[in-house]
Amino acid sequence: MADGGQTLPGVFQAMLDHLQFIYEKFKENKGETVPQGFTLEEFWTKLNDGVKLLSHETTKTSLAFSKPPLPNIMETQSIITALDAACMNLATVAASLPAERGAVLFSEVQNSILAIFKALVPVIISLRDKCDKGAEERLIMTGALWEACEQVASLPKNNLQAVNKQMQKDELVVMDALLEVEECLQELRRAGHGECQDAGILDAGIGLVKTARAVARRIAFTVRFNGECSTPEHVHQLDMMAAHMARISPAVDDFVTNLYPPVDKQAASQTASALFHCLQSNLLLIRSSHCAGEGGELVAQWVNFLLGASNHNAGKVLAVAAGQVVPPSNPPTAS
């Protein structure tokens, strides 16, 4: 780190400048290099040690300026040099994670480390601008950094765990959308509009959203119990399934947005078709993945079932939106 000048604010400004440099370089890291002899076990040990060191050095720096007498220029430079070294060490260790160990895992780690660096910035700014006068405020800022550091311990330790975590979130988002659209239909019925065309489209749409929820839940369940990340091919398949699964909730949101009265029938039809194709791609992908298991008969059964349910319910939305009378039926549903 370059010398920031013979003033305390200058030393802290130099730290801020270098921290910004570290942040940007780490953010640009794509994990393209695979360190020789890399193991996840050793990576996590070094990463946790690096996080603890940064937390310790930040705390030490903050406390040093909590009350007079303040450290002199040379003492401050020594303190900041140690903090800067801890930042460099953490960035170097975190950047050693190869993306080939899983895109979802890589993203989880990168976002967590970036959050730590972001939390450090206001601490250094406070030191630069207020020194000992901002001690109470800085304690809160340092606490935010501690919280960011503590999150690292709960990160998924491999790509299967990372994908499971993401899929669980995606499933919950779809569930929330289903509850909202069901409430909307109930409100229409309470208002005496249960027989209007908008209510009919909404009712048909609920069937498709329920199917989307079933697809998300079954895929998440199957990946959780059958998924593996012991080979590059397995890791790649997990990333592919996670990427496809992540498209379900936005497709559901787009569709649900067009179900609220007054219904735009053309938009409802278009987004229903888009949601159907999204569900279809997810189902076909998991059926061809290692998560289907040897032979894949059991997974193929529920995949075919949900393909039929998706097709039925999307077709029902299109029919109602087109003004066709859809006879009562007992379409396939899944929990």
Strand percentage:
under 5%
Low-confidence stretches: 327-335
Outline:
elongated
Kindly name the structural category. mainly alpha
**Number of alpha- plus pi-helical segments:** 11
Mean pLDDT: 91
* Radius of gyration from the alpha-carbon trace, in angstroms: 27 Å
End-to-end separation in angstroms reads: 58 Å
Give the biggest beta sheet. Answer: none
Oligomeric form of this entry?
A: single chain
Let me know the number of strands: 0
The helical percent reads over 70%
Order of helices and strands: HHHHHHHHHHH
Structure, explained:
The protein is mainly α and 335 residues long. The chain is built from 11 helices and no strands.
Salient structural properties:
disordered C terminus; mainly alpha; 335 residues
How is the secondary structure organized here?
Blueprint: H1 8-28, H2 40-64, H3 73-95, H4 103-130, H5 135-150, H6 159-190, H7 197-226, H8 232-245, H9 248-257, H10 265-287, H11 297-321
Give a brief rundown of this model.
With 335 residues, this protein is mainly α.
